[in-house]
Each structure stands twice: as C-alpha cells, then as structure tokens.
Design goal:
The chain is α+β, with helices and mostly antiparallel strands. It is built from 7 helices and 15 strands. It has helices at residues 2-23, 33-46, 232-246, 262-283, 293-319, 328-334, 377-411; strands at residues 59-66, 70-76, 97-100, 110-112, 129-132, 136-142, 160-169, 177-181, 187-188, 198-207, 211-213, 216-218, 220-229, 345-351, 358-367. Strands 1, 2, 3, 5, 6, 8 and 9 form a 7-stranded mixed beta sheet that branches. Helix 3 (232-246) runs antiparallel to helix 4, helix 4 (262-283) packs antiparallel against helix 5 and helix 5 (293-319) runs antiparallel to helix 7 (377-411). It starts with a helix and ends with a helix.
Length: 413
C-alpha cells in the first residue's frame, strides 16, 4: 500500500506539471547556481564581451561622493542586460544581480585631478561590481583620497576652510564619457562622523568648465565642502593665554625700581611670550598667500615686549642717578610744566580788622616767584614709568580688541 501511494502521488504531480505547461505560459526557471553560470557564459563568452570596448558611443556615468568612505560610480552597459528573454538563449529574469571583477568589465577611467598622493585612476580590483538585469553597473570604490586644498588662515583659529574635489575623466573625451551628478545625493553624509576639530558648514556639487587638452574636451565634476573650526579648544588654549600674557607687559612699569625685580620680570615675560609664539606658529598652516591676524598680533605684542626691555633699562638708569639734575632738553621733549610750590600762588580771604570775620567774598592773591625747582633723574624715572604704563596699556588694549572683533565678526558672518 505504501508503494502504491507514492506512485500515485508522483503521477499526480507529473500530471499537474503537464497541465501547467499546456494551459498557460511556460514557468520561468528558478534561480540556481547553474542558471547563473549559464548567464555568465552567455554574456561574457558566447557574446564575446570585451572589457576594452565601451558599451555605447557615449557612456553616461553617474558620480556620487560619500565623505570618508565610498565613491560610487554607476553606468549602463546594454551588453550585460538580461531582462528581455527574447534576446537571450533562455529566461534569466530570476537572476537579480551578477557580481564581477573590474578586470572582466569595461570601467570608466576617472581620476581625482587635485590629488596630492598619486594622480592615478580610481580603481580597486578587490571590490566587486554589481550588475543588474537592465545592464546597470554599480561600483563602490572605497579609499582615502588626499586632495590639495587652498587654505585661508587669515582668521585662524576661528577660521573656515573650503575644499574642492575635482573629478575628471582620463583618456576618454566628453563625447565618449559624460560625468553626471547623482540627482538624489551628489554628496552623501550618511557615513560621516563628526570631527572633534571641524564642523561641516555647507556642501555643494556642480559641473565645472570642461578641461581641454590638445583641442579635446574632458568632463569634470566639482564637489565643494566648507568646514568651520570649532572654537572652544583654541579659545581656551590659544587666544586666552596670549591675551593674558600681553597684559603682563605694561605691569612692569608698576614695579618699584628699588625692588630689583623689574628687569627680571620684563625678561621673563619676553621669553615666555617668545616660547608660546613658537608653539602657536607650529600649529598655524604654512602659506604665503595670506597672513594670519593672530600672527600679526603675536608679532606686534612681541615687539612691544622687546621695546619694553629697552625702556625699562632707561628708567632704571634714570632712577639710580638719584638726585642728579636731568638735562634741560628733557623738559622740552616731554613738555612738562614745572611743579609749583605752595608759596608760588596763595589765595587768602580779605578779613575785617575790627572783628576778625570775613566781610565779603573778595580774595586777594599773593604771588611769589621762587627759584625754579630742578628736575632730577629720580623724578624723571617716576614720570617715565607712569607715561609708559599708560601708553602700553592703551596700545595692548586696542590691539587686543581689534583682533577679537575681527575674528568674531568673521566667525559669525
């Protein structure tokens, strides 16, 4: 009974299969390894596919850029399509994708024109190409590409940098390979991770004017990205210490000359500022196209500190001359009026002789003309300290405010 049951079932299945063939269209074969092998044989061997031949006269290649991870290229090769069963030996429509290596397929030769490492075609033989049934070929090229970008360091460390990646064809003219931007996402940031120093500000992709060589035109695409430097780290570690050290310079003129610390303090500030300036200069990008405002500020403050050393030497020299009379021409230069003694101009009320009270608001002026007081080197030293303190405080305050206003205005623009 068991054997008969099995035979009956088999006969019934065969009968249903024959009914399906006779009543309707023949069913498509299911996907199998042998079916894919037959498709590969027909596409690449039977049809005599040549990877050196372009699929059409002008191949349109869509290009999209994924930051830091993948460059994706897509084009159509009608020689590799199998979605129409009438053009193939059998029905392969259940084969959704085929994967192949770059050495077996024709691939567009595309380069990054402003690469700094190696100007070579974008190709990786280890990454497979995905082929769909309509002949579309997708190639995701992974890699890290270093490009040359012009840096504008005028507003460092609150600056923004714009980098342009130029992608163009190599060997094929515009009439043979036409590069087009991906309409959905010309620049894809799905895989982009936020950087600790830079913040992505804007991005754009556009068609550039074609590159011409020997009268031939080549298709070119531009991908532009603008990054802003995050300010918190540099404000705390660069701008804040520099500004504080700058305001140490005028305080040397508040130190008493007799303390003996004036010269040592002045030289310490100068050396500290010079060392800090060399550290900051190593972090500033090197370029001669633009000058960093921070570098100008550092150089100007360093000049103030250097001049201050010489001025402190002069004030100390004058102080330790003691009560020696200063030359008269110094009075002419500094345009100082002589101090008046209390006896030079006195104003006293007019009193009534009878009762000793003030009769009215009249006053009488008693004028005396004593000998002019001599200006000593000691007095000159004190005067110079006051004068240089005011000059340096005003100069450093104005230069610091100018730097901060310029940097902040550009950063928030």
């Amino acid at each position: 009974m068991k054997i008969l049951g099995i035979i009956f079932c088999n006969i019934q299945m065969v009968h249903m299969f024959h009914l399906g063939q006779t009543e309707g269209k023949p069913s498509r074969p299911f996907y199998s390894l042998s079916l894919e092998t037959d498709l590969r044989t027909e596409l690449f061997e039977t049809n005599q596919y040549s990877p050196l031949q372009r699929p059409v006269l002008r191949v349109t290649t869509n290009v999209s850029l994924t930051i830091l991870t993948v460059n994706e290229l897509a084009w159509e090769d009608n020689r590799l399509s199998w979605n129409n069963p009438s053009k193939t030996s059998q029905d392969y429509t259940n084969v959704v994708y085929l994967f192949s290596a770059a050495k077996y397929l024709w691939t567009p030769t595309i380069i990054i024109e402003n690469s700094v490492d190696d100007v070579s075609t974008m190709a990786d033989t280890n990454i497979p190409l995905r082929i769909t049934s309509d002949g579309a070929v997708y190639w995701s090229l992974s890699g890290i590409f270093k490009v040359a970008c012009e840096s504008d360091i005028r507003y460092y460390p609150l600056d923004s940098q714009t980098c342009i990646i130029r992608i163009t064809t190599w060997g094929y003219t515009q009439g043979e390979i036409l590069l087009q931007l991906d309409e959905d996402k010309p620049i894809n940031f799905d895989y982009y991770n936020q950087n600790g120093e830079w913040e992505l500000h804007s991005s754009s992709a556009y068609y550039a004017s074609n590159r011409y060589e020997r009268g031939l035109s080549f298709s070119t695409l531009y991908f532009q990205m603008t990054f802003k430097r995050k300010p918190l780290f540099h404000i705390i570690n660069t701008i804040f210490p520099v500004v504080l050290m700058a305001f140490l310079i005028p305080m040397v003129y508040k130190l008493p000359s007799e303390s003996g610390e004036k010269m040592g303090y002045c030289l310490t500030v100068l050396l500290a500022y010079a060392v800090y300036m060399s550290i900051i200069s190593d972090n500033i990008p090197s370029t001669s196209k633009s000058v960093c405002f921070l570098s100008i500020y550092l150089g100007l403050t360093l000049a103030f500190s250097t001049i201050s050393v010489n001025l402190v030497i002069l004030t100390l020299y004058a102080y330790f001359q003691g009560e020696t009379a200063a030359p008269t021409w110094i009075l002419t230069i500094i345009r100082r009026k002589r101090r008046c003694d209390a006896e030079e101009n006195k104003i006293v009320p007019c009193l009534n002789e009878e009762n000793g009270n003030i009769i009215d608001g009249k006053v009488m002026e008693i004028t005396q003309t004593p000998e002019a007081k001599t200006l000593t080197y000691h007095d000159l030293s004190l005067m110079l300290d006051k004068f240089f303190f005011m000059v340096y405080m005003i100069a450093i305050t104005l230069s610091t405010l100018t730097l901060l206003i310029v940097l902040l205005t550009n950063y928030h623009a």
